[in-house]
Amino acid sequence: MATIFTKIIEKEISADILFEDERVLAFRDINPQAPIHFLVIPKKPIATANDISQEDEALVGYMHRVAAKVAKDLGADKHGFRTVMNCNEHGGQTVYHIHLHVLAGKPLGWPPYTENLKVN
């Protein structure tokens, strides 16, 4: 099934592309959650993290290498960045084509729900 990411890969929808080769595409998120927020997607359609096969292991590892390269290109390597891959509805996935969120440009803190924790 075609997704918005398929349409970006096929250039039917424009995106602010930061990196592209025959395997992956990296582009800025249209709803950024940090000063630097981009996505790295495989050109091979894989619906969720649950669908990553042994055959896809190198591709998913490559997505992380591209994330680090683009983060460095944007100056986010020195202070650091976060990578997140959501899976299914409860995991926050909204587009069913795996994608790696890369967030940087401010202290991100962890966990984001710290204020709700009770520590004894």
UniProtKB/TrEMBL annotation:
InterPro entries: Histidine_triad_CS, Histidine_triad_HIT, HIT-like, HIT-like_sf
GO molecular function, one term: catalytic activity
Taxonomic source organism: Glaciecola punicea ACAM 611
Protein name: Hit-like protein involved in cell-cycle regulation
Histidine triad motif (motif): residue ranges: 97-101
Record-annotated active site: 99 (tele-amp-histidine intermediate)
Listed Pfam families: HIT
Gene3D superfamilies: HIT-like
Every HIT domain range: 4-113
